[in-house]
Amino acid sequence: MVATECLGACATGAVAAVARRNGATGKTGPSVWLGGMDQPAALDALVDWIASGGPTRLDTPAESVPAVLLDAVLGIGKPIRTHSPAHYFQAAPTAENLPPAIAKR
Q: For a FRET experiment, which of 2, 4, 7, 57 has its CA 20 to 30 Å from that of 37?
């Protein structure tokens, strides 16, 4: 996870972007953007989802969002850029890779 200061959608609160990466190609699929991650129950559900493997499909990551997180889904957006497939950490989100619903707030 990467923590950053407000990127212009501050009213949304704590936001997380989760995406699936193809281990063979390093390609990252679209990100599921989730809000309300400052709420303990939502954060626990997010951690559990990621620990169990996160999105199951590269091209449709929202299909496997746990029911407890469905109300937290803000949208689906472009993949977060990474430095290389060998790195485990994602680049910090920017206004360019936020989904339109978040970037406009």
A: 57
